[in-house]
Amino acid sequence: MLEKMKARITGLLTDKKTRNALIVPGAVLLLLILMSAFYMEHWMESDFAAEMIFSKLMSETGHYIATPDWYYSTEYRLFYTQLIMVPLFKFMKSWTAIRVITNIVFYGILLASYAFMVKPLKAKTERKILFAALLLVPFSETMAQHMQFGNTYIAHVILMFWNIGLVLRLAFEQDRLKLQDRETLAAGSGWQIWYLCALTVLAMVCGASGVRYFLSVYAPLLVAGLWLIFRGEHFRALLDADERPTFRGLIRDLRDVYMSREAGIFRNSLGASAIAFIGYLFNVTYIRSHFIFTTYEDLNFIRVINGELFRRIENSIGSFLELMGYIPDRGVLSLRGFITLLSFVMIVVGVVVIVSVHRQLRNPFVPDYDEDIEYVDLEDAGAARTEAETSALFEEDAAYEDDSESMDPSDGVAAEADVEEEVISGEEPGYDEDIEYVDFGGPVAVADVDDTNLIDRFFLALFHSAFIIMTFVLVFTYTTITPRYYLMPLVLILPLLLIYDRREVKPFRKDLVLWILTLSMTIAGAKILYSMATVDKNADRSAAAAYLTENGYTFGYAMYDDANMLEELTDGALEAAGIRLEDGAVKYFRWSSPAAYYEPTYATGPVFLLLTTEDYAANSDASAVAAGTIVYDQDGYVILAYDSPEALREE
């Protein structure tokens, strides 16, 4: 396997088109690494800082995956940045260096998961590489913070890509490969076992993490699989039958539908969902009794009749626009106004691509046979191919001799020469056990024409189902509406772009659409990176943190938006418990922070309370605030000092 992988990599690097394509994502990666090293703290948020504190806590207490000494948010994260950060904290003290190294590792895993997902998708290798760069471009503030730099969602996207790729391989590998010898067949079966084991582990991890992956991964997979079944020939034949089937006949027909090729996605998605549900049961029965995190049991459907529906629709649309780069409350005739207009341009381009793919999928696709199309099943595709198509197919890839009994083995074609005449004449070839496949060279990894069209339809259905499901939840439930929730459905546009690039037959139309998208994302990404380098959103917070460390403080309290950031900005020199002020009383905000911070005996001696000037003005009459002495009041922050933490105990 290692030799094949080495040969594959060597082949890619020696190909000129592939080498040139690697320059683009390579340049974007280098830019992201430099920005992470020098400017990432400018746009850091409390959620991002929490993962650092979480990893540091486990490194100090001897844990690795999880710890009961932490207040989790809504997820119990098994595959997350702590896998890299925890060991780094054991011998590194620079939080910036730890975050940069973690980002680099996750960039690599993200690109590997993307390549794994789109591998079954028929597209030229260099195009897949070029489109990978779009996954790395921070074209909006939300994408930059939660995907490229903050990394709060990069693990979610990675797990989604791996799940999709594994479901695809398990669904189509057996149908699309007809192997000639038992040794190769055994190797193919071995890969199936590895895929099944990997999907089982991933599903358990995702299910044990909480309900997010059911919403973002498994529900869209199931809906997309059902759509393929309903649009498949077996189910449509059942619907169009002139006579009502008997009960036994209906059961037999439904069994045939379930076992059909187009039902492969649904079968494997259903199996993965069942395993994820087992993981969720482990979450309910074990994890919740050993770890503390927020759940969704109290999430209700909204009241539609009081106008809540229209407000949530409005907020959902606004969230998606902000994810695409829309900047509210800025002048139209300004740079930010221009970037906002680009967000609409990107949305229009996306709609054009989706509509075009819809239209193109009405007709079966016959691929150009190149280095990416390696195996074609003659039994399914050869007899149906027209004379012109088959002639073109054999003209370039096979050397025939009139009186020979077999094709030249050096061409990699394991089939009898008389098959050529039967296929070209449109006759059904007579297959026997010795005529099993046509080999165009390279590793075994390619679907036949029917599977190519089916995979294309799957990715289109997956994109739609992911967006519809997410929109339904945001509109009809009381869950928080935020732009980042649309991030995972949005990245599923990448396979559709590859499909559009391959299927669009009008070259100028295709080039125009893709260049407009590329130019818009490049300009928007450049603006985001420029703003990140020149605008330090944490400058005032850093000044307050510097004052605290210079005056010997080590522990205090702050609103959640500031609490974790104080620790991040000082490389752990400061610790702060999250609070909120309600009706003049202190309430602890136990969310993404160490549990020990809220223990009565954790802090002794002088402590501080950090508030924004707005929060201080709104709560200056609160007993806890009034008991403090103002020692710092500048740049939007007020710091109050206390001789002991007693005045800031939760009431």
What does this structure look like?
The protein contains 26 helices and ten strands. It has helices at 2-14, 16-39, 46-61, 82-89, 95-118, 125-136, 141-149, 154-176, 182-209, 212-231, 233-239, 247-258, 264-290, 308-323, 335-360, 378-382, 387-397, 418-424, 449-476, 487-491, 493-503, 507-534, 539-550, 560-569, 613-619, 623-626, and strands at residues 70-71, 375-376, 438-439, 555-559, 575-582, 585-588, 593-594, 607-612, 629-634, 637-642. The strands form three sheets. It has a six-stranded mixed sheet with strand order 6-5-4-8-10-9, with helices on both faces. A two-stranded antiparallel ribbon has the order 1-7. It is globular and about 85 Å long. 41% of the residues are buried.
**Major beta sheet summary:** 6 strands, mixed
Strand order of the largest sheet: 6-5-4-8-10-9
Which shape, going by the Cα principal axes? globular
The mean pLDDT is 84
Task: Break the fold down into its secondary structure elements and pairings.
Blueprint: H1 2-14, H2 16-39, H3 46-61, E1 70-71, H4 82-89, H5 95-118, H6 125-136, H7 141-149, H8 154-176, H9 182-209, H10 212-231, H11 233-239, H12 247-258, H13 264-290, H14 308-323, H15 335-360, E2 375-376, H16 378-382, H17 387-397, H18 418-424, E3 438-439, H19 449-476, H20 487-491, H21 493-503, H22 507-534, H23 539-550, E4 555-559, H24 560-569, E5 575-582, E6 585-588, E7 593-594, E8 607-612, H25 613-619, H26 623-626, E9 629-634, E10 637-642
Parallel strand pairs: 4-5, 4-8
Antiparallel strand pairs: 1-7, 2-3, 5-6, 8-10, 9-10
Keywords:
10 strands, 651 residues, alpha+beta, two-stranded antiparallel sheet, 6-stranded mixed β-sheet
